[in-house]
Write a structure and sequence with these properties.
Layout: E1 2-4, E2 10-16, E3 28-30, E4 37-43, H1 44-47, H2 49-58, H3 68-80, H4 84-101, H5 105-118, H6 125-144, E5 149-151, H7 154-158, H8 178-186, H9 194-197, E6 198-200, H10 204-234
Parallel strand pairs: 1-3, 2-4
Antiparallel strand pairs: 5-6
Helix pairs in contact: 3-4, 4-5, 6-8, 6-10
Length: about 240
């Protein structure tokens, strides 16, 4: 077998078409290469991104991945040919390989969080899905535990004019609305005033759970903004 090391090479077109080789011809593969400049890529690997990722992960016949710089070179070539989604998948997998194989345990944990929530910045929409899940959890929690919510203005509650029922009381105090309260918990920057007008009383576990939902929503929103900023900056 012949193995080529293309480190530092400037390649105008890398074409890989033949799946099989003639029995009397030695197979040629590319050794894990660094700092390769690649203008174009074509062939059956380009049409099957899973095969392309597998090739980059194993470096041909050996279980040895290509360096991240080679992944990026291939991704850039794909993007120039209009295959933006395939290029994004390659960059995502390259980032995943790099983060999991370098750094401390804490960095690996952080890498795992970013992978799940924003796809290392290449799939920030995952954070929006998480926010929608938290919104559904918050609504279910508030709706099934409405009896534990009391007006923040206790003086108004004492005179009997404010109740937990939906609607607006006779003195203009805002009524309790489960969905709006859940919306305030998860999307605090776009507040309707429910969390200021009503609070949890007599159930510490419920209060802690709602606080946890709010913290989780803040974290996902921050990660979403980070991911969007990364996508824009890469473009």
């Amino acid at each position: 077998m012949i193995k080529l090391d293309l480190t530092g090479a400037e390649i105008d077109l890398l074409r890989i078409d033949a799946r099989l080789h003639a029995p009397d011809v030695q197979k040629v593969t590319i050794a894990p290469t660094t700092d390769m400049t690649l203008a174009k890529i074509s062939g059956y690997l380009v049409d099957d991104v899973k095969l392309l990722i597998s090739w980059l992960e194993h470096g041909g016949p050996l279980p040895e991945p290509f360096p991240v710089t080679t992944w990026v070179a291939v991704a850039n070539a794909l993007e120039r040919s209009g295959r933006e989604e395939q290029a994004r998948r390659l960059r995502y997998r390259a980032t995943d390989h790099f983060l999991w194989n370098t750094g401390s345990v804490w960095l690996k944990i952080w890498a795992g969080i970013k992978k799940v929530t924003i796809g290392h910045g290449y799939y920030p929409s995952r954070a929006l899905t998480g926010i929608l899940v938290l919104l559904a959890l918050a609504f279910a929690t508030v709706w099934t535990n409405a009896e534990y919510f009391v007006p923040t203005a206790l003086a108004v509650a004492d005179d009997g004019t404010v109740t937990v029922a939906s609607g607006v009381s006779s003195n203009g105090y805002p009524g309790f609305w489960s969905f709006l309260y859940a919306f305030d918990v998860v999307l605090s920057p776009v507040a309707s005033g429910q969390t200021e007008a009503w609070r949890v009383a007599g159930n510490q576990a419920l209060a802690l759970w709602i606080a946890g939902l709010k913290l989780g929503a803040y974290a996902l929103l921050g990660l979403f903004v980070t991911g969007i900023t990364g996508v824009v900056s890469r473009r």
